[in-house]
Amino acid sequence: MLTFFGGKGGVGKTTLSNAYALGRSKQERVLVVSTDPAHNLGHLWHQEIGPEPVTVRENLDLVELDPEKATRAHLAQAGETMRAHMPERLHKEVDKHLELAAASPGTHEAALLEQMAVLIEDHEGSYDHIIFDTAPSGHTARLMALPELMSAWTDGLLKRRDKADKFADVVGSLGGETKSQRRDAELRSILYRRRTRFAHLRDALRSSTFNIVLTAERLPVMETIELYAELAEHRIPVGGLFINRRSPAALPGRRAVEEEALATLCAALPDVPVTELPLLDYEVGSPEALEEIATYLQR
Ligand SMILES: Nc1ncnc2c1ncn2[C@@H]1O[C@H](COP(=O)(O)OP(=O)(O)OP(=O)(O)O)[C@@H](O)[C@H]1O
Ligand SMILES: [Mg+2]
C-alpha cells in the first residue's frame, strides 16, 4: 500500500506523514520516503537518515531520496541509451544534449520519479505500507502526471523501433544478424524495462492514497481545491484532508476565520474525509511529539 502526504510548503507534511507512519507501524511494516530535496527527517528523528532505509523504531524505516544523485544516474542511463541509438560521430552531440538536459526543468522530476519507481519495485515486498513525504504541492502534482507522459513517450519510441525491426528482419534474413540489429534489440529491452517500470508506477499511484495537508486559511484552501482537481484528472484518489494547526477556542476571532475557510473547503470537496489537528503549544519536532500527534491521526 502506498500513501502520499502533499500540500503547500510548511503546512506540516513531514510532521503528519511521520506521525501517521509511527501510528501505522504498531500494526504493519512501514517505510517513510522523503522526496523533498530539503530533507529534514534526520532532525525530526534525531538520527542520520540517508538513501538506504534506516530503522528508527520497530517496523518503521526511513529513507531520503537524493534527487541530485538521481538526476546524475538518470542522465547517465539516458546517455547510454542514446549513444546506443546514435552513430559514433554524434556521441559528442549526445553529451551536449545531456548537459543541457541536466539544467532543464523536468529532468529533476523525471529522475526522482524513476527513483521512486525503483524504490517501490525494490521494497514493495519488504513493507506493508510505503508512506511518501513529498515536496510542496505544485511539484507533487507535476510528479504525479509524469508516469503517464513517460509511458506514452516510451510507447511511441517502441512502436517506431518495432516498425524498423520488421524491415531489418527482412533485410537481416538475407545475411546474418548485423551490429545495428543487436544494438536495436538492446535499446528495445532498455525501453521495455522503463515502460514496465512507469506503467507499474502509474498503476501503483492510482491505487494509492493521497492525503492533502493544509491550514484553515483561504489561500491554502483554494490551492487544495486545485490540487484535488489535478489529482482527479490523473485518477489519483485523495484519501483525506488534514487540517493542521487549528487555533484554540480561546482565539474566537481566529476560529471564525478558520471556520469560514473550512466551509469553502467542505462545500467544494464534500466527500473527502477531514481530520483536524490543533496548534500544539510545544515543540513538535521530536519522536515523542510524533507519538502524541499519532493519536490524533488514528481513525
Ligand atoms: N500541529 C502543530 N502544532 C505546532 N507546530 C506544528 C504543528 N504541525 C507542524 N508544526 C511545526 O511547523 C513547522 C512545519 O512543519 P513541517 O516541517 O512538518 O511542514 P512541511 O509541510 O513538511 O514543510 P516543508 O514544506 O518545508 O517540507 C515545523 O516546525 C513543525 O514542527
Ligand atoms: Mg517537509
Concise overview:
The protein is 58% helix and 15% strand.
Structure characterization notes:
The chain has 299 residues and is α/β, with parallel strands linked by helices. It has a domain at 2-67 and 106-154 and 198-250 and 271-297: 3-Layer(aba) Sandwich (Rossmann fold), CATH 3.40.50.300. The chain is 58% helix and 15% strand. It contains ten helices and eight strands. It has helices at residues 13-24, 41-45, 67-85, 91-103, 107-123, 137-172, 179-206, 218-233, 252-268, 287-297, and strands spanning 2-6, 30-34, 54-57, 60-64, 129-133, 209-215, 238-246, 274-278. An eight-stranded mixed sheet has the order 3-4-2-5-1-6-7-8, with helices on both faces. Strand 6 (209-215), helix 8 (218-233) and strand 7 (238-246) form a beta-alpha-beta unit. Helix 3 (67-85) packs across helix 5 (107-123). The two termini are 17 Å apart. The mean pLDDT is 86. The structure holds adenosine-5'-triphosphate (ATP) and magnesium ion (MG). Adenosine-5'-triphosphate is lined by residues 9-15, 36, 136, 244-245, 277, 279-280, 284-285. Pfam families: ArsA_ATPase. This is ArsA family ATPase. InterPro entries: ArsA/GET3_ATPase-like, ATPase_ArsA/GET3, P-loop_NTPase.
